[in-house]
Design brief:
single chain, alpha+beta, Pnp Oxidase, Chain A, about 35% strand, globular, binds flavin mononucleotide
């Protein structure tokens, strides 16, 4: 594998990107929305998937993929289990990073900021819109805890399926988080390999904009 890996190189010459970073403007939220719409229009797979990195109190960093469910005003909303590994990290260290990668457009967006749980009523409304299997799964899975056997998970699923024959209430340990960014970086790959980077850093309520070396 290692010989093959060393030689592995995607051909970036013919990817089709609609515009470069010069069109991003001065509002990073609008810039994000535009790039997200372009990723969706280009049929990027799982365009709303991002990597969330969190830190534990002893600075052990962990990353996992989640789905972005909404950009609400200036907050990026995602849903998960509050007692999970990431939930425990966030409860003690609210600074996190988010990373989107859209390979078909050769684009990456880095976002950093602080996360807070969202209002229970908003989590309730989103939970109610989920398929029943996902709702029961949120009760059945003690996300990130050791699972003695898969049968145990299935038994938990069947237990909650019977507990809630009709409407499934939202588990108190499951809900949304809102990330409020204080940093964005947009990266646009270029066939020349002189890639474009543009950063937005929030200082005293003003976005400081810079180009970065690739
Ligand atoms: C494409 C994809 C989307 C995912 N979306 C979510 C999500 O929205 N919420 C979630 O809790 N886990 C999601 N997961 C699972 C997480 O990556 C992770 O395994 C889980 O949240 C447990 O992470 P933790 O133990 O670090 O807390 C997703 C995984 C993949 C591959």
């Amino acid at each position: 594998m290692s010989e093959w890996l060393k030689a592995y190189r995607e051909n970036h010459a013919d990817f089709d990107h609609p515009s470069g970073i010069e069109t991003l403007g001065s509002d990073p939220f609008i810039a994000f929305s535009n790039w997200f719409d372009q990723a969706a229009a280009a049929q990027e797979k799982e365009a709303n998937a991002f990597v969330l990195s969190t830190a534990s109190p002893d600075l052990r960093i962990s990353s996992r993929i989640l789905y972005l469910k909404e950009l609400h005003g200036k907050s990026f909303i995602f849903y998960t289990n509050y007692l999970s590994h990431k939930g425990q990290d966030i409860s003690r260290q609210e600074k996190v990073s988010m990373l989107f990668f859209w390979p078909g457009l050769m684009r990456q967006i880095r976002i950093e900021g602080r996360v807070q749980p969202i209002d229970a009523a908003i989590s309730d409304a989103y939970f109610a819109s989920r398929p029943r299997e996902s709702q029961i799964g949120a009760w059945a899975s003690a996300q990130s805890a050791v699972l003695p056997s898969r049968q145990e998970l299935i038994a938990q699923f069947e237990y909650y399926d019977q507990q809630f024959p009709e409407l499934v209430p939202r588990p108190p340990h499951w809900g949304g988080y809102a990330l409020q960014p204080d940093y964005f970086e947009f990266w646009q790959g270029q066939p020349s390999r002189l890639h474009d980077r543009k950063s937005f850093l929030l200082q005293d309520d003003v976005w400081q904009i810079n180009l970065l070396n690739p």
